[in-house]
Amino acid sequence: MSAITLKVNGTTHTLDLDPSTPLLYALSDDLALRGPKFGCGLGQCGACTVILEGRAIRSCITPVEAVSGSEITTLEGLGAIEKPHPIQQAFIDEQAAQCGFCVNAVIMTAKAFLDKNPKATDEQIHRAMSGVLCRCFTHTRMLRAIKRYAQEAAR
Amino acid sequence: MSNRTSNAANGMALTPDARAALKRAGFSRRDFLKQSGALIVGFSVLGLGVGLDTAEAQVFQGVTAGTPPLNQVDSWIAISADGGVTAYTGKEELGQGIVTAQTQLVAEELCVPFDRVKLIYCDTAYTPDEGYTSGSQSHPMNFNHANLAQAAATARETLVKLGSDHLGAPAEQLMAADGAISLKNDPSKKVSYGELLGGKKFSLIVDKNAKRKPASEWTVLGTPVHRPDIPALVTGQFEFVHNVRVPGMLHGQVVRPPVVGATVISVDESSVKNLPGVVKVVVKKNFVGVVTQRPWQAIQAAAQLKVKWTPGSGLPNQGDFYEHVRKQKPTRDTLLVDSKDVEQQLSAAATVVKATYHYPYQMHGSMGSSCAVADIQGEKGTIWSATQGVWYTRGTTAMVLGLKPENLRVIFTRGSGCYGLNGADTITYDAALLSQAVGKPVRVQFTRKDEMAWGESYGNAFVMDERGGLDAQGNISAWDYECWVPALGTRPGRNTPGNVITGFLVGFEPEEFNPRTPAPDPTRYSNNTNGMPSYIAGCIGETCGGNGKVKSERSLTHNVVSPFWTGPLRSPQRVQNTFAHESFMDELAAKAKADPVEYRLRHLSDPRLIAVVQSTAKAANWDTRPSPKPRARKTGIATGRGISCVNYEGNNGYSAMMAEVEVNQETGKVAVKRIIVSVDCGPISNPDGLKNQTEGGALQGMSRALGEEVTWDAQQITSIDWTSYHTLPLGFDVPKVEVELINRPDERATGSGELAITLVASAIGNAIFDATGARVREVPFTPERVKAALSQV
């Protein structure tokens, strides 16, 4: 165990952790965050996605020691129920969820991508999302919500 | 940050009033109902309609003997002195939108705004037992003339009667609106529900004759109300079962057998002694697990624990598995229909067409692996589970633990997806066993491999033989169907925990296999499994319940024992049977050189099934001609369209689908470009929710048709993650999906969530045939199989 400093959603936390612990466990168990989720533990589905210094990363395969001190944003860090981030609002407007377990993967991956590529074409968006899974297959609505946000953000 | 403070911070906790009310009630709704007042739970300020939050639920110490009586209004509806409406239901939210629709239903029948209704679902301390939330049964059970709908209608009529006494006016001069009874001709003379009831119970039997509000008067039902849970989902505030945190909670992992059929010889507890945080190694027959302080420690300890297992039982070769299934003995045979003249009619037919279809085992493959939290202390316990049936899970978990069911409380808490019997039930037993062993709350979540190889109960593989006779005009004169279905276990039901993996590992047996050959003659018509095609008359004696015209008919199912655990997977058996029937109907149409839509209509008699086919054809601007497409090129990309239709379960919803595909004839890759699906489920409760379900069903069906297949080697399952089990990701391959809704306000409400998925494999297969002339008869339609079919053209 050693002291690990995590900067999450603007707050700095010092946690006593095995340095090899995947970041996901620190977020969901030590910090009680509900956004990032365990889906596969293999970096294959995206459920655990967080944004690290502007990049979408998979926290289930990222050891905490590798991100100590870096800025981490989770789904909670984007907006709240009372004041959702525009990409979250786009998902509400499009009713783009079924069970909702994958929503974290979809929103965080899309957000990180569109921040860097605000003028992305539909094809580029599809490519950016092609490593994300949703087993309720809410694909059409989610892609619509992402494009809606992209268009609104570009305005 | 503790969970409790995070709850409070995001508003998920109970209001102080509600907490006080619950404490007064001793946390037992049934006890409370014995007193004079109705239990009003003023929780859920977010309007999430979720149950009590974690921190509250865990203090439950009460005893609930069984379900609140289903014939009592108070089991379903409570109205507080301030006019708030609390409704209780046994049908839960899995992501299919049924909680929103049920809230609409109660608001509609009680004439109150949507957000004045709080719906509590699937918690054995509070809610009526309506069995499993499954099988497209929620809409028919709760939206017709029984259960929730009828209780709400009874409550409204009662309020009108009370209003009549209070206002001194006859009931026919009164109306109910916005939570009050008023005079129709002078709405200023009114009295609120809260005043009328004064917070008391209804103390009434549900009146079978209470009048439902006619659809023509609906203002809440039938409208696309937004789901109240979505804001919390998209902002990371929603509490899944994965997020349940109980004070003092420990973490468990299971250690499953390395190969199928292996049993425990010995467990070396010292092998994890050096690891930090290990609390206990738990062994019960062939169930092995570890409990640790922290979740990452549990994963490490489970990986390091040394267990000696016997060799496995070996598995049949996957390469010729379908032949193996066909030869299995003994079998349990069931005849759905048998006109006894099929052989004779086939002999007399101008043309006989035969085809065999294969469908693989498939997974629910929920995106988050299954998770449960149990707090078993001594004789009592509370369980947070994503089970589809809290009452069944309460009873069977009690059996697994050796406790009394009335001492357990099971609280449904949403899991990841569902789609049927994923790992939710089995992991509930895992969590309960580990918690009981340490006397502390334990959370368990499967690894991806445990979920896929040792957690879930797969959808059944099927082997299906079709034979059809055509007369000289090309009309179908006889239809014969025979299928072989390997099965092992199923839902645990009331008393069979051995039907899922963990129950079996601790020593319970799965449902007994009872061989039966030959099958007895059917005594009543039921197409519950869609084992009969839509085009037969379905006659049992003098009664014909089918949707079609073919009178010479037989449908015979052989159940055999499966080497793998199986259970319901979205549209269980219906997907497989319909794949064969609707593909074969296309083969018959092609043999008759008839257009596939026209040929279907020619053989159908049910007007609603005909209507969905016509709706889809119209939306698709269907080009009437036989398949395959004339003058199709034999190289490069070929395009085609296919049609498929079903009356789900013979009486539970109508749907027809058109798929357009592009087939790359060099690689065999199939790209689906467009799907049009028409749906008729009677009166539409929430059109947007219905569309969402239908779109998801269409794409899930596409994923299953094109990529999904459980695989194994000589000893064990080899599809254990998302690189070995192929699901359709977001991105390039997503087709355009168009949904046509047919509203029938005066018909019975049917199911809808399993309509679209039932049609996809056949619609795509028929489109591949239309494009290329190649018939793919085995799911999934991998490039290799498509290429093989192309080489047969």
Report on the structure:
The complex is a heterodimer of chains A (155) and B (793). Chain A has 155 residues and is α+β, with helices and mostly antiparallel strands. Chain A folds into 2 domains: 2-77, Ubiquitin-like (UB roll); 79-154, [2Fe-2S]-binding domain (DNA polymerase, domain 1, Orthogonal Bundle), CATH 1.10.150.120. Helix content of chain A is 40%, strand content 16%. Chain A has helices at residues 23-30, 64-67, 75-78, 86-93, 103-116, 122-129, 139-154, and strands at 2-8, 11-17, 49-52, 55-58, 71-73. Chain A has a 5-stranded mixed beta sheet with strand order 2-1-5-3-4, with helices on both faces. In chain A, α4 packs across α7 (139-154). With 793 residues, chain B is an alpha+beta fold. Chain B has 3 domains: 3-234, Aldehyde oxidase/xanthine dehydrogenase, molybdopterin binding domain (Aldehyde Oxidoreductase, domain 4, 2-Layer Sandwich); 243-309 and 364-454, Aldehyde Oxidoreductase, domain 4 (2-Layer Sandwich); 322-361 and 460-792, Aldehyde Oxidoreductase, domain 4. In chain B, the strands form 7 sheets. A 7-stranded mixed beta sheet of chain B has the order 9-10-7-17-14-15-16, sandwiched between helices. A 5-stranded mixed beta sheet of chain B has the order 12-22-19-18-13, with helices on both faces. Chain B has a 4-stranded mixed beta sheet with strand order 23-24-25-26, with helices on both faces. The N and C termini of chain B lie far apart (66 Å). Mean pLDDT of chain B is 92; it is low at 1-63. At the A-B interface, α1, α3, α4, α5 and α6 of A face α1, α9, α10 and α20 of B.
Number of domains of chain A: 2
**How are the strands ordered across the major sheet of chain A?**
2-1-5-3-4
The main β sheet of chain A shows up as:
5 strands, mixed
Looking at this structure, what is the CATH superfamily of the largest domain in chain A? Answer: Beta-grasp domain
Strand order of the largest sheet of chain B: 9-10-7-17-14-15-16
- The general outline of chain B is globular
Oligomeric composition of the shown chains: heterodimer
Structural class of chain B: alpha+beta
Helix/strand class of chain A: alpha+beta
Fold-level CATH name of the largest domain in chain A: Ubiquitin-like (UB roll)
Helix content of chain A: 40-55%
Cα(first) to Cα(last) distance of chain A is 48 Å
Helix count from the secondary structure assignment of chain A: 7
- Which protein chains make the most extensive interface, counting residues with beta carbons within 8 Å of the other chain's beta carbons? A-B, 61 and 72 residues
Provide the low-confidence segments of chain B as ranges: 1-63
Overall average pLDDT of chain A: 97
Overall strand count of chain A: 5
* The CATH top-level class label of the largest domain in chain A: Alpha Beta
